[in-house]
Structures are given as C-alpha cells and as structure tokens.
Amino acid sequence: MCDLRSLVGLVVFATCFTKVLPNGRFQVFVITLNNNRGVTRDGRCCSGPSSYPPCFGACSTFLKICLLHRWHGNPRACGLGFATSPIYEKNNLATGNDVNSVDLFLEVNFQYSWPGNITMLVEAWHDIDSQRTINDHSQLILRTEESLELLPSPAWITSSSVTPTSEIEFSYRVICNENYHGNSCEIFCRPRDDSFGHFQCARNGSRVCMTGWEGEFCDRAMCTEKCLNASGICERPFECRCRIGWYGDHCDKCVVYPGCLNGNCLYPGQCICYDGWFGKLCDIDLNYCFKNNPCLHGGSCFRDNVNNYTCACPQGFAGLNCQYSFCEKEFCQNGGTCMMTNIYERRCLCAKGFYGDRCQHSLLSCDENFCKNGGKCIENDSERSCDCLPGYLGNQCQEEIDECTSDPCLNGGTCRDRVNDYVCECTTGYAGSQCAILIDPCDQFLCFNGGTCLVMTENLSAFCNCRRGYSGERCEIADPCMSFQCFHGGSCTFKTGGTRPYCLCAAGYDGDHCERNKNPCQGILCQNSGKCAVSPMQNGFVCFCKQGYTGEVCETKINNCESSPCKNNGICKSYSDSFICICPSGFGGKRCQKSLMVSDQRQNTVQLLADSEKGGAVTTVEVASSSSLTIEPRYLTFFISSTILFMFICIVDQT
Ligand SMILES: *[C@@H]1O[C@H](CO)[C@@H](O)[C@H](O)[C@H]1NC(C)=O
Ligand SMILES: *[C@@H]1O[C@H](CO)[C@@H](O)[C@H](O)[C@H]1NC(C)=O
Ligand SMILES: *[C@@H]1O[C@H](CO)[C@@H](O)[C@H](O)[C@H]1NC(C)=O
Ligand SMILES: *[C@@H]1O[C@H](CO)[C@@H](O)[C@H](O)[C@H]1NC(C)=O
Ligand SMILES: *[C@@H]1O[C@H](CO)[C@@H](O)[C@H](O)[C@H]1NC(C)=O
Ligand SMILES: *[C@@H]1O[C@H](CO)[C@@H](O)[C@H](O)[C@H]1NC(C)=O
C-alpha cells in the first residue's frame, strides 16, 4: 500500500486541497419582486415626503439571501453564508426567465460539507446608507423563510411568497463545484487519464475506470495472467512487453546463449543441449560418426568432445577425414613407383607388364585363352578387355546370359536357355516360339476306323472317340468280337496274344458259340401243363402239350373256329379239339348248313326265349344228333357244359 505511487498521489491530492476551492454554490435567482406601492413591510413609504402611500419616492431595493442550519441556526448569523445584490433604485424587479441576468442572481459559495437540511431566508431591503446595512428592521420590504432538505442538483426549484405589501417569485438550487460530488459535495473526483489513473467520475463521485484499467485509482492495467506469470511487462491494458532475454506472445520463451546451436533454455542465456549434442554451444554432434561416416579410406570414426569426431586412419592415410594419402614403401607393388599427383593423392607408375591402383595386376597381352566363348580381345597400354559375342557377359565373356530369366514362355511353357536365345517347350494346346498360339489339339490327331477326335476340356489334350468294335488310342485296333457271335447270353472275350476270340457261355450252354444247351429241358417250361422231353431234333427238346394246346412250349391255345366252319351266320364256339355251331333260326346241322322246314322246326328245334336286349333274335341249337331240345336260357350254360363234357368223353374214347 505504501508504495511510491500512493505517496505521489497523496502529495498531489494534498496540493489540490490546499488550494482554497469552494465545494459548491447555493444559488438564488429572483424572477420578480413586486412592491408596487414602494413601501416597506410595515406599510410605510420607503422615501418621499409622505410616510404612507401613495408614496412619492421609490425604494432603494436590494436583495439578500441567508443560509443557516435548519434546526439550530441563529437567523441573524447566516451560519452557512449569505449574499446581497446590488442596490436598485426601483420598487419592482423583474428578469423574466433570463437565468444569465447577473443582476438578480445571488450565490453563496461554500467550502464545507453541504448539510442538506437548511433554512433559507430570502429578503428584500430598502437601503438607507448605500452600505446595505440591515440593522433597522423597519427597512425590511419582504422576508420569506423556508426550511427544507435541499440536495445538490442542477435543477432549479421555483418558490413564491405573497405578503400584504409585496410579492416575490424566485428559483434556487445548490450545485457542487466541478469535480465535487455527493449529497454533501464533499467527494472529490476529477477525471484523469495519466499515469496516476484512468477514470471518469460517476454522479455520486465514484471512479469509473476506463476500459483496460482497474484498481481503486484505475491505475492498474488489465493484463493476461499468462503474460504476468511469464516474464512480461504489462503497463498498458493487455500489453505484454518482454523483459530482456524473453520473447514470444506471452514472453514465456527465453533467448538462448548467443551461438547456441542445438539447445534450449529455461532462463535467458542458457544453452541446454538436446539429446545427442554437447559443448558450450551444443555444437558437438555426439552422433556425427554414425550420421556422416566422415572417415575416408577405411578410417575408424570416434566421438570427440571438441571436434565432433576423430578419424583413426589406416596406414598410408592421414588428415581429419583420412583424406590424405602419402607414398610409403610397398604401396606400389611389382616394382611400381609411387608419386604424389597433388598434396593428397598418390598414384603408382607401374612397371611394364603390370597394372592396377597398386600395380597389383599382371598385364598379359591378349591371347587366345583370355576371352572365353569367342569374345574378341582388345588391349591398350593399361588393360586388356573383351568384346563379347551376343549372349555372353563378364570381363572375360565367361558368363552366359540366361535368356530365360525374363520368363518369356507363356501359358505354362518351359523355357530352355540357349546361347543368346531360348526355346520354349509348350504345354499341350500351345505352340509358337513363346507358346502364345493356341492350337486345335485335334489338328493332325488322326482317328482311324471312323473314330472322332474330341478334346479334353481340363488339359486340352485330344483323344479318339472310337466307333463300336474299335479300340486303341487312335481306334486302330479292331475288336475281334465284332464278328464273333456268342448265343444264349454268352460273352465274347479276346485274350491279348491269343489267336482268336472265344465265348464265355452262360450256365447250361456250351459250344464255340454257346449254341448248345447241355440239358435242353433244364430251364424250359412247357406251358399249360405240357411235358418236356429230350429230343435230338430242333432245339434238343420237345414239349408234349395237353389237349387243346400247341406251340413249341404249348403256349398256343388251339382255335377250332379259325376256318369259320359255321355256315349261314352260325356262331362258332371252339372247345379243345372241336367246335360247335350255334345256328340262326331256320338252319341246322353241325355247320348250320341245313335249311329246316317249318314242321321240322316245330318238331326239332327248341325256341329259345331271347332276352329283350338281343332284340328278339331266336337261337336254335342243334346237337350233332339233330335231336332238338328246348332249353330255357338260364339252363343254357349248364347245357353247354354238359355238352362239352360229353364231347370230351367221346374224344377221350376215340384216342
Ligand atoms: C434532514 O432531516 C431529516 C429528518 O431528521 C433526515 O431524515 C435527513 O436524513 C436529513 N438530511 C440530510 C441530508 O442530512
Ligand atoms: C455510485 O454510482 C455508481 C453508478 O453510477 C454505482 O455503481 C456505485 O455503487 C455508486 N457508489 C456509491 C458509493 O453509491
Ligand atoms: C499463473 O501462475 C499461477 C501460480 O503459479 C497458476 O496457478 C496459474 O494457473 C498460472 N496461470 C496461467 C495462465 O498460466
Ligand atoms: C559438428 O557438426 C555439426 C553438424 O552435425 C556442425 O554444425 C558443427 O559446426 C560441428 N562442430 C564442430 C566443432 O565442428
Ligand atoms: C584402355 O581400354 C579401357 C577399356 O576399353 C578404357 O576404359 C581405357 O580408357 C583405355 N586406356 C587407354 C590408356 O587407352
Ligand atoms: C488329360 O487329362 C486326362 C484326364 O483328365 C488324362 O487321362 C490325360 O492323360 C491328360 N493328358 C495329358 C497330355 O496330360
């Protein structure tokens, strides 16, 4: 608190106070004073011969204001001050509303705390001695007294008063002087914008800081915490001026020691090396060897705290980087002479017949054996070299170029290296020097004996699809079984190397072609109860059929009606060995060949009652004996069966 600035402020303030400056002004402005008759308060004429009106002389009027404490003031004392106006030789005073009129304007300057509660006296007097003496109360023209609470304000308050003899209207106010504020005009505040403060003053006298300033006297600039925390100087609002050795927006970066190459600092002037650096200026690269590999000619590099690195040079070399070489014994071999070509390069002059940096190679002139594989040998003063034939490489053409390394064969072809060339062995289906051509596998793939060439989709190989009876890759082999028949389910086989095919017969058969049945009745079923017997004829067996059947295995039923034996539309019925004819009406005989008389008819035929569905057709049955019977249809079946039985018996008898 007790710093120099406060002290200076105090001195300045003290200086201000020592100047006698009133704190404020009480002002009254009389608008009108009417004293038409020119009398004093008690009604007497101010001047002139007559004591009472009409008066012949005018009043010498002056105004007086008097201020005193409200509750305890001696009205005579005007304890808070007073003021008087000039003397006007007239009864009525008026200024209208012209506030600037000096004449009727009265002012009390005060240098005390304005008390607020006051008593205010406004008086008009008649002057008697040009001294504005007010001892004689008979000279009073008018007096108003107001006790009130009056606070400083620029606004005028108007008041008026009427007495029996006169009337007055006036305005008044109390105002603080410039830079004084508050209800008592005791608060001093002068706006300023200098090193002692930056503020305006509020109505009530408190300081209102300008933007960017703070503190009781608004003399502290607002600053960022970052700047203040770092090494910044902040004297103007939001300024951040760096102290020497610091920089950056917030003055938080320190300036390193001059010349510091690879380091930083915590405080100005430091040079704290980054990893891998060393030295006062952090200019020694501890990894220099590793990064730069500076040692030439096979020198070994070592870390060095003065020069970054030191090279340990191999024999014959010197210099920081082993860059210098010097002639030494035995450097040039085979009798060569060492020479310095400049300060750091040596060179060997080789004896005749040798070459190389150190004359280590023997120079042979071109001979047949130097260049291999037909390469041509070329020689000049220092070397010999080979001009190789196409397909060969190497300083002696000793290497054969493998043309297959570029994989020139397509579609799975296999590459075979040749001199300056290659050959592709193509996979099936491809051709061409690089197997790029897809060929039809059936081209030139002949199939004999009508066989067809087909292509295997998976590997594009051709194969022959042979016709029946042929086999072999190209269907060239005819099947000997083609023209060799085997009967009775026998199968033909052909033994490789055998002379002819033979039959493998099914069980029960033999013979070259399985044509013979070993037991002809085995497996033969004579149908319809026929009996099988071995026979040298035909198939080797014979079936003896039951009556009414025929055929090789008695499979056929004999039909005696086949030759249509019944005449005149007689209906034929076949019975094992015989037949009967069912004759139409009017005919008879075994074959219905006889035409019958009506009398005969009555005698010999039986009228068969036709059922309604047969449309009334009449059937006559004639039995072989021609003795006619009359049979009801329901007995017909029985009749026919009996007849058959009868005939069967006859047939059996005959045999
Ligand atoms: C004037 O007097 C009244 C009543 O006693 C009081 O309330 C008020 O605060 C006084 N005013 C001043 C400015 O002292
Ligand atoms: C003065 O007035 C200002 C506003 O103009 C206000 O912020 C401040 O509190 C006041 N001070 C006092 C002492 O009344
Ligand atoms: C300033 O410093 C103080 C104390 O060291 C710390 O608490 C604060 O966070 C700092 N502010 C900034 C902005 O760095
Ligand atoms: C060390 O090497 C660095 C580069 O890696 C170079 O800047 C520095 O000047 C060198 N110091 C000396 C002493 O030669
Ligand atoms: C000798 O031949 C080699 C290879 O052909 C060539 O590089 C070299 O310059 C030649 N030297 C001279 C001296 O002609
Ligand atoms: C092609 O494939 C078939 C079966 O998928 C095989 O029998 C035949 O030998 C193959 N041909 C060649 C040339 O690989």
Automatic annotation (TrEMBL):
The DSL domain, residue ranges: 174-218
Family annotation (InterPro entries): DSL (IPR001774), EGF (IPR000742), EGF-like_Ca-bd_dom (IPR001881), EGF-like_CS (IPR013032), EGF-type_Asp/Asn_hydroxyl_site (IPR000152), EGF_Ca-bd_CS (IPR018097), Notch_Cell-Fate_Det (IPR051022), Notch_ligand_N (IPR011651)
Ranges for domain EGF-like: 219-252, 285-323, 324-360, 362-398, 400-436, 438-476, 477-515, 517-555, 557-593
Keyword Methyltransferase: no
Cystine bridges: 176-185, 189-201, 209-218, 242-251, 313-322, 350-359, 388-397, 426-435, 447-464, 466-475, 486-503, 505-514, 526-543, 545-554, 583-592
Taxonomy, superkingdom: Eukaryota
PROSITE patterns the record matches: ASX_HYDROXYL, DSL, EGF_1, EGF_2, EGF_3, EGF_CA
GO cellular component, one term: protein-containing complex
Transmembrane region(s): 635-652
Free-text function comment from the UniProt entry: Putative Notch ligand involved in the mediation of Notch signaling.
Protein name (Swiss-Prot/TrEMBL): Delta-like protein
Originating species: Potamilus streckersoni
